[in-house]
Amino acid sequence: MMGRRNSCSLFRLSAFVLFGVCPAFGNVVYVDKNATGANNGTSWANAYTDLQDGLADCANGVQVYVAEGTYTPDDCDPTCDRSASFVLDDVTCDLAGGFATGGGAWDPDTYVTILSGDNAGNDPTVTDNAYHVLYVDSNITNSSGITGFTITGGVADTGSDVHAAGADIRGGPEIKYMKFDGNYATYNGAGISSSGDAYIHHCVFTDNTSGVGGVGGGAMIGGETKVENCLFANNGGGVAAGGIGIANGTGDGPTIENCTIVDNFLGAYPVGGGGIWITSTAGATTIHNTIVWGNDSSDLSGTLTSLTITHSDIDGGCSVCGDAGDYNIDADPGFASGDCSSYHITDDSPCNDAGEESCPFGDDDLCYDHPRCLGEYVDIGAHESGCLSNDDCDGDPDGEYCNTSTDRCVECLVAADCPMHKGCGKFCAFNTCHYTCAQ
User: Fold this and answer.
1) What's the rounded Cα separation, in Å, for the pair 47 and 30?
2) From 41's CA, which of 103, 177, 279, 298 has a CA 20 to 30 Å away?
């Protein structure tokens, strides 16, 4: 993981202990819209009720902890300021949502913390929504991180504010365990626009939409942005890139790794690349261990001459994907619903164990409770198939028991796992039930 400024910083810890174990060093500011104390940010009891007040203290190099609830950039008093955003512009500030009201363990799935552009709280009326919900300045480096929020309701539709509705990322923060949902931009990057060297991972992008001439419903990335272990599903691009658009690369260029880009769509006048569209300015681009499947109007297209793509599953193939040495496939991934999305792969998926030969991830998959790898090799896509316990196999058509030696759901581990059959004797061999019946 990227280096932080102290050994107990938010982003060095695993998902399960991400925030609960750090002592207070005097550099934490608390925000809880339901707090009733002194409103000075010094504790959960005395938390700020307005996130903008917490962000104002980022000049002191703090970590801002935010409790569950919905926070808007402007309070519409007396009128709504659509140009207001949540701004991160200090190089040593971390921003973390996903805490319960009053504090406690970090769990963004349970304690949903929403940054909403719906300033007036009157959607579907959007004439007062923020143009950009979150703005990260170009001076921000990987010394800052953002985690645990859902970003929604950004509407970039006026004048020069027609891009980057959910988040406008100019610098290089670490962005993880985030959801970008329901943002709209007339042109590019409805969910997020990242033009620097941000590291975006373990994020979900859904139902973000660009306008008729727009590109990059889910995301528009450039610079040296890296996107890893993310899901892009049901996002809409106007002419191209319902999922991800790539432009204006620098240095080693943008990278997409272990992502699932699926079921994204285009508007009435599509050019192509419903999943990924690579522009002529993208420069060197790397796609690795990624599923691009079931998207509108060719899943991957654009200017592909500087593209390196390996160990990926591309619907319809790719003219520059290389020969078999690059280990790319064109095969239905075989998605199934799982505990954190509808785009898990099954044990018999062609993407299972089809990724990079080694397993370079000291990390977890998108669900952040399954490690890479559970099989012999890493899987292609954002989710790792396999099991950690019998609970992972409930309802699995291939069996209901977890063979922890192979991390696969199987029919049986011992004879007692096999159901009775016509009074026959039974035994378990090679994780399959067998029966011996008298003739």
Assistant:
1) 5
2) 177
Confirm if 126 and 184 have CB atoms less than 8 A apart: yes
Max distance between CA atoms of the chain, in angstroms, equals 87
Q: Are strands 408-410 and 335-336 parallel, antiparallel or unpaired?
A: unpaired
Closest CA to 300 of 269, 279, 324: 279
Q: How far, CA to CA in Å, does 227 sit from each of 205, 231, 233, 253, 262? A: 12, 10, 15, 12, 15
Say what the pLDDT of residue 394 is.
60
pLDDT at 289: 93
Residue indicated by tokens 């329901």 = 182
> Cα 71 vs. chain centroid, distance in angstroms?
20
DSSP letter for each residue of 255-266 = EEES-EEES-EE
* Rounded-to-integer distance, Cα 167 and Cα 391, Å: 37
Cis peptide bond N-terminal to 419, omega within 30: no
**400-414: string of b/e by CB count within 10 Å (b at 16+)?**
bbbbeeebbbbbbbe
CA distance to 212, 239, 287, per residue, from 236 (Å): 10, 9, 21
According to CATH, what is the number of the domain 10-345?
2.160.20.10
pLDDT of residue 390: 74
Structure pTM? 0.87
Cβ atoms 295, 315 nearer than 8 A: yes
Q: Given this model, what pLDDT does residue 359 score?
A: 63
Tokens of 277: 């569209």
- The pLDDT assigned to 304 comes to 86
Tokens representing residue 114 in the block: 């929403």
Establish whether the linkage from the previous residue to 78 is cis, with ω within 30° of 0. yes
Cα(401)–Cα(404) distance, rounded to whole angstroms? 9
What is the C-alpha to C-alpha distance for residues 162 and 184, in angstroms, rounded to an integer?
A: 9
Is the Cβ–Cβ distance between 109 and 125 less than 8 Å? Answer: no
Mean pLDDT by 10 residues, the chain (439 residues): 30 36 60 97 96 88 93 95 93 91 92 97 95 95 92 95 96 95 97 96 96 94 96 95 95 95 93 92 93 92 89 85 71 81 85 77 71 80 80 62 75 85 82 76
Looking at residue 17, its pLDDT comes to 36
Distance between CA atoms of 425 and 434, rounded to whole angstroms? 8
H helical segments located in 211-250: none
Q: Where are the domains of the chain?
A: 10-345, 399-436
d(CA 69, CA 112): 6
CB 240 within 8 A of CB 246: no
Q: What are the angstrom distances between the C-alpha of 437 and each of 6, 86, 87? A: 66, 70, 72
